[in-house]
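histidine kinase, pasting as requested.
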Amino acid sequence: MLSEFQETLLQSVKAFQSTQLVKNKYENVLQNLDSGIMLFDSEGVLTFINVQMAKLMEMPRQSLIGCNLLQMLRHPHLSRFKKRKILRIYREAIFHRKTYHELIDEYGRHWLITITYGDQMDGDYLLSVKDVSDYKQIEQTAYQNDKLAMLGKISAAIAHEIRNPLTAIRGFIQLLRPHLIQLGRDEYARIILMEIDRANDIIHEFLNSSKPSAPQKSVISVPSLLKEVVLLTESEALMKGCEIHLEIMAEEMYVSIDVKQIKQVLLNIIKNAMDAIGEVEDPEHSGVIHLDAKIVSEYVHISIQDNGNGMDKGLLSRLFDPFFTTKEKGTGLGLSVSYRIIRNHRGNISVDSMKGIGTVFVIALPITSFKAVEPSGERR
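C-alpha cells follow.
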C-alpha cells in the first residue's frame, strides 16, 4: 500500500516537473519574442509582461507585474507621451471595441497594437505590440512609385495632346508668313513661331522632369562633387543671408552616378533649404546649411541640414507627392523628381524636420570601389 502511494507521488512529482518544464520553455519563448506582450487578468491586473514590452515602455518588468491600469499610469517612470497613448488605446478598445491600433511613437517608429480577449482568453486580455516601421517604409515606397508612374503617363498624354495642335499652328503660320511679309508684318510671324518653340521646350522640360531618363553613370569622388555644388550655390546663399558649411568624414568615397541628375537633386534641396531659412521671421537669425558625407555600411550618406522654418508631420508625409507645394510659384515637381532620380540610382532619400527647428535630408547612394573621375568627366 505504501509502495503504491510512493509510486503515485513520484509520478505526480514527475508530471509536475514536466509541466513546469514546458511552462518555463513557453515562457522563455514569449520572453524573447521581438514583439512586446502584456497579459491582464479579468480584474485588469497585469500578470505577465515580456522583455521586449518592458524595453518599449522603458520601465523595469518587476515593477509592473501586479499593477492595474491606474497604477501603471501613476508609475513615476512612465513618460507623459506613453500615458496618452495608453489612455487612447484603452478608450478605443473598451468603448469602441477596436482590436487593432496603429500609432507613431516619439521616435517616429510605427507600431501595430493588437488586443485579444473573449472566450478564447478565459476573461484575460492579451496586448501585443509589433514594430512595423520597415513595412510602412516599403508601403510608402510602393505608393510613391505608383504615383510617379501615373504622373509619367499623364504627362506623356498631356504633352501629346498639346504638341499636335502646336505643330499644326506652326505649319499654318509658316504658310502665312509670305503674306505677312507683303503686309510688312513679318515680326508677327517671327514672334508667334518663337513662342510656339518656347511652348514646345516647356513641354519637353516637363516630360523630362516627370520621367527622368536612365542615368548615364560615371564613377566620381563624392567630396569633389559636393565641393562643386557648394561653389555653385554659396554666392546665392550669401545673397540670401545664409552660409553653407561642408564637412567630409572621409576623402575616399566614390559613387557611380549620373552627375547631372544628382547635381539637380542636390541643388534643388539646397535651394529649398535657402527658401526655408528665408521664411524665418527673426531678423537676428543666422541661416546655416550643413553638408556632410560619410560611409554607412555599403552606402555613402549625403546629408543636407538647415536651420530654417521646418515642417510639421502633415507636410512631411506629402513632401514627395507630385504637384504638392507650399510655395506660391512652385510646381511641386522638384522633390518628386529628386525621389525618382535617387531611386533610379538604387539609392534612397529620407527627410526629417521639426517646426521652428529645421530640416535634414539624407541621400543614400551605393558606394563603389572603382577609380573616380572629377564631376566634369575627366579621370583623376
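Note for the archive: The chain is about 50% helix and 20% strand.
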